[in-house]
C-alpha cells in the first residue's frame, strides 16, 4: 500500500495498525463511524525522534509541511473553572489562543495546557497528540484550512507513527467546531 501523500516505507490502514496506536486512538479506530470508512485512515510508521514538525519534514520531505496539521491541547479559564479543548491547525501556523480560542471557549484567559495535563488527560504522548480518540467531552476546534485539504498528516497518539486522514473527516469528529482563522501564520 502507498500513502496518499508522502513517501513512507511502512503504510497500513489504521484498523490494521491497532497494535501501534495508543489505547484511546485504537478504541476510536475500532469504533469508527466517521464520514469515510475506517480503512481510509492510514497509519505510517515513522521514527519517534523525528516526530516534531521541523525534523519530520527535514527527513520525510518539505512538501509535507503544507499537508500536515498539529493538534494541541489548550486550557480556557473563567472564574474558578477550566475547560480543556484541542485545536487542530496547519503545521506552518500557530494557534490563535488569545483570540479565536478564548472567544470560542468563552474564557477569560486561554493558554496551552501543561504537558502533564495534555498527556495525562488524553492518554497520548506529547508530540503525537491527535484529534482522533480525544476525551468525548472536549471541544475540538478545527481550522477551516485543515478541513479544506484532501489529505492531512497528523499525530497518531504516539511519537512513533502518523495518521493520514482525509481533511473532510475533521469537522465530523465528536464536538468539532470549524473556525476560520484558528491558525495564524
From TrEMBL:
GO MF annotations in UniProt: aminoacyl-tRNA deacylase activity
Domain YbaK/aminoacyl-tRNA synthetase-associated: 57-166
Coiled coil regions in record: none
Family matches, as Gene3D superfamilies: YbaK/aminoacyl-tRNA synthetase-associated domain
Name by which UniProt lists this protein: YbaK/aminoacyl-tRNA synthetase-associated domain-containing protein
Lineage: Bacteria, Bacillati, Actinomycetota, Actinomycetes, Kitasatosporales
Amino acid at each position: 500500500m502507498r500513502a496518499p501523500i508522502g513517501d513512507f516505507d511502512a503504510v497500513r490502514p489504521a484498523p490494521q495498525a491497532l497494535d501501534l496506536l495508543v489505547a484511546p486512538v485504537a478504541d476510536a479506530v475500532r469504533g469508527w463511524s466517521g464520514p469515510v470508512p475506517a480503512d481510509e485512515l492510514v497509519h505510517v510508521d515513522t521514527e519517534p525522534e523525528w516526530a516534531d514538525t521541523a525534523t519530520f519534514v527535514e527527513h520525510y520531505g518539505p512538501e509535507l509541511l503544507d499537508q500536515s496539521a498539529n493538534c494541541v491541547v489548550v486550557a480556557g479559564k473563567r472564574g474558578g473553572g477550566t475547560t480543556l479543548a484541542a485545536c487542530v491547525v496547519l503545521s506552518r501556523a500557530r494557534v490563535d489562543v488569545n483570540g479565536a480560542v478564548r472567544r470560542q471557549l468563552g474564557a477569560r484567559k486561554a493558554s496551552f495546557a501543561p504537558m502533564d495535563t495534555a498527556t495525562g488527560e488524553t492518554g497520548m504522548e506529547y508530540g503525537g497528540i491527535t484529534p482522533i480518540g480525544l476525551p468525548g467531552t472536549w471541544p475540538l476546534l478545527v481550522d477551516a484550512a485543515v478541513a479544506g485539504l484532501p489529505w492531512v498528516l497528523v499525530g497518531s497518539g504516539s511519537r512513533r507513527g502518523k495518521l493520514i486522514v482525509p481533511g473532510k473527516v475533521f469537522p465530523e469528529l465528536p464536538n468539532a467546531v470549524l473556525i476560520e482563522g484558528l491558525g495564524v501564520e
